Amino acid sequence: xxxxxxxxxxxxxxxxxxxEKKDLIVSNLKTFTAKQNVLSELDEIKPYETDAxxxxxxxxxxxVLPENTKEVSEILKYCFKxxxxxxxxxxxxxxxxxxxxxxxxxxxxxxxxxxxxxxDFDNKCVVTQxxxxxxSITHAVKHKGYYxxxxxxxxxxxxxxxxVAENSGGVHSLKYGTTTNNILGVEIVMMDGTICRFGGKxxxxxxxxxxxxxxxxxxxxxxxxEVTVKILKNPQTxxxxxxxxxxxxxxxxxVTDIISSGIVPAGMEIMDKALIDATExxxxxxxxxxxxxxxxxxxxxxxxxxxxxxxxxxQIAEKNKSNSFKLSKNEKERMGFWSGRKAAFPAxxxxxxxxxxxxxxIPRGKLSEILKEISRLSKKYKLGVANGFHAGDGNxxxxxxxxxxxKDELRRTEExxxxxxxxxxxxxxxxxxxxxxxxxxxxxxxxxxxxxxIQQQINIKKLLDEKNLLNPGKVYPILRKCAEEGRVHVxxxxxxxxxxxRF
Length: 503
Known about the structure:
Helices cover 36% and strands 19% of the residues. Strands 12, 13, 14, 15, 16, 17, 18 and 19 form an 8-stranded antiparallel sheet that branches. It contains 19 helices and 19 strands. The longest helix is centred in the last third of the chain and has 20 residues, at 407-426.
């Protein structure tokens, strides 16, 4: 992406004085950590110019890779004193541009915080550094028959610190919740260098739920340096079913009926025809090719419970005109069912030069309505789209197919994505299920929140980061853009969101 497009995003105004002091700043940073942990040459910092939302790129002033909490504290204390912006970054797998650098900001990478500190089976928890990958936690405890429940599709690469920052979910969020339901405590360093701990190994903590505040805060309130997570015992039995439907409405109605019957699946996913075709060509999972909609339902628990509930699900599916029902016979077949869904992103990569993964939520009863709306918008913007849903909790991930080298297609893709999210809000949903707001959805916050809502959030940000140095330019809307779109009304010269910096 050209630098002009980045400027169009309305990033915070570059502090030229900071740019001019780059050599001094880099030199000073090397006093807080090993010299090799401070990167400032173009070939060193270029790999950090974007996160997984690769449409937006921008170079940082420098990259710092501290190795312990003390170093993070000293670096932040220095940056606070010198008014230097800081962008925290985990593994860089985020899809909303939350780790997009700024030219006058230090990018603080937590990649060297990669150790599991304590495995406590008695208290069923793990204490870990934030750079440890999501799946590594399960690998560390599986020999005792335990696992970590949240499973975002990028779990092989995404870091647990990033999971906390974005409140990541995954296939099993329906039954086991998102990250916020599976963490017990964090260590966090505030912008002025203060080290705080919220929560711990116990389930209940006194006082305000500051842990809840930090989870999903997208790096705006502090830098996470340690996380305590819950681990669960593996269930006795896990089975999955592939269920095909002739129409979108039938599949959507089946989701609603399963949940309203009182059954809580471990996971429930929906794929539309475009995604079925793409993934089947890619991994040959054995999906029914005559289905317009494919549902994957997974149950876990005792064998008798699982078998009994699948009988009920089959009845519900038949009532909703299902045209195929296949139950996994063994673990290999179950994993085969999931192989297609987990390969959705690379499969779509084979369909078009680029794809844009959206993330929004809707009430479950609106499933068929949102799919119809996405289909209409696909025709309007003349762009293909493949739909995958965490159907049980109404979290949708439309994949818009486009060619990033075509500027007009990129523009249409962004507009298409924004309209999907506006539709989600109109239907009673939210702008994000698990990817966060970042820079991608920032201008849409006015759609979901009124002036008072946003101002209160900004007030909290200001209390914890008084100089607005932590990840500025993310999450909260830029007034100029909101006003242009008629969503901010300035009355008698009184500006909305007075504490929001003007970019």
